Amino acid sequence: MISTLFVPASGSDTDDRVFATALAVAQPLAAHLKFFHLHLPATEAARYASHIDFCMGPAIKDALDNLQAREDTLAATAVARYRNFCREHGIPEQQTPGAAKGVSARWLEESHDVLGRLMFHARHSDAVVLGRSRNRDYMPDGLIESLLVGCGRPVIIAPDAPPRSSSGTMLVAWKEAPESARALTAALPLLEQAEQIVLLAIDEKGAASREAMDDLARELMWHDIAAQVLVLPSNGRPANSQLAQTAVALNADMLVIGGFGHSQLREQVLGGVTQALIAACAVPVFIMH
Known about the structure:
Strand content: 15-25%
Number of helices: 9
CATH superfamily of the largest domain: HUPs
CATH architecture of the largest domain: 3-Layer(aba) Sandwich
Oligomer: single chain
Order of helices and strands: EHEHHEHEHEEHEHEHEHE
CATH topology of the largest domain: Rossmann fold
Helix content: 25-40%
CATH class of the largest domain: Alpha Beta
Shape: globular
Largest sheet: 10 strands, mixed
Distance between the termini: 18 Å
Number of strands: 10
Structural class: alpha/beta
Strand order of the largest sheet: 3-2-1-4-5-10-9-6-7-8
């Protein structure tokens, strides 16, 4: 089940597409949205604002004052957007589980330990919805990758344009690896609500076969999920480009993919395909590491 979605709110314009993506995922599941903002003190925000390193003397105080004013503005903007969003879409606020059906929401705000608190709330939710970093809210570099590797939950990356829904066409990227298996299992609640499901494999050096994909489709039938199979030749093209282009060609509402890795080092743990799709894709990307 996916009953709770963790939705960090930055106070930047990225929030609009993140909120829309979260709602598109939540609606078919009647899920609860946990909106969260980190209202940082200037001293902690300064750790992520590189220009502070070049300040000296009185300029340091001025820079910290400006940072605090910026953080206060981001916090006020974030909560205002949250309230407007809930009002516009008729989403009731709910602090604890109750008998009410449908999407509900609540607001959380904290003021310290950026990665620690984000990781805490991500692990205590069923999935996380994030926007691509635009470096306007002083969040740590590599935040998406850190959460994906460390939280143990699927991460959904919001596209640049708000999605229509998450219950139309779902494109599931598959290769014979545990990451794909985990992603498919984590996405089952969404697949059960989808109108159309396409299982996609890219045949790289004979690694994918129609027989294997047909068997995977048969396994999904045990969940009462009917899926089509699509096996594409690689033709020497990057896999991330093929996945992203196929998602657009199929008018998919979401791309499901495993977060593949090649090293135990944190900075290298995610493979090139995963990194490329985190950076850019026209549809929401559901990733499970």
